[in-house]
Amino acid sequence: MLGFLMEFLKHPRSVGAVLPSGDALAEKMMEPIRFGGARCIVEYGPGTGSFTRKLLKYKKEGTKLILIENNPAFYKKLLREFGPCKNVEVIFGDAANVNQYLLQYGAKHADYIVSGLPFTSLPKEASEKILRATKRAIGTRGRFITFQYSLVKQKFFEQYFKLAGCLLELKNLPPAYVMVMKQKAGWRDGV
Fold first, then answer.
1. 113-125 burial, b for 16+ CB within 10 Å, e for fewer?
2. Reduced to 3 states, what is the DSSP secondary structure of residue 95?
3. Helix boundaries (H) for the chain
């Protein structure tokens, strides 16, 4: 936990929280996922692995899990812990390059993208790049699942996606909203 706090102090805009996500929030993030049919799941900003451990617990053996982390300290920790796991790829990179990573590992689209990114504190341009890439990455059937500590970014997300559901986790400190998004009607890849 001290390591997480140190990374927050060094990079407050990209880490976005003083403490890692709690177990209750991690479980809430898993609720919208139908693990039985998921072939590829991507996680943005896994940090110290709170959500990653749950994804590994529930995913099917053949499901590919791609972790994208841009913080060097977190990346090294994730690589040590999850790198040896079957069907898990740990990438030091930018979530805006998700489509490149999907192709690299043999997937055209992700069934689910789970995000721990702090969109409230990320620069607007970076958020826009990531959300545009995410639209393409989830295709017509995928879901984008993120959490936020307030709904201040809801209208921003709705510029890119249709909100399919919003869950509130009160046991997390601070309480958090889990937002589930899908493509807007009529979306076509490359349009």
1. bbbbbbbeebeee
2. helix
3. 2-10, 12-15, 23-30, 50-58, 72-82, 98-104, 124-138, 154-158
Cβ within 8 Å of residue 94, ≥6 positions away: 68, 70, 130
pLDDT given at position 20: 52
On the question of pLDDT at 6 being above 90, the answer is: no
DSSP state of 74: H
- Phi/psi for 21 (5° steps) reads -60, 145
Tens digit of pLDDT for each residue in 136-178? 999 999 999 999 989 999 999 999 999 999 999 999 888 999 9
Q: Are 163 and 180 in contact (CB under 8 A)?
A: yes
The pTM (predicted TM-score) of the whole model is: 0.88
CA distances (Å), origin 101, targets 16, 25, 86, 113, 135: 24, 27, 17, 13, 15
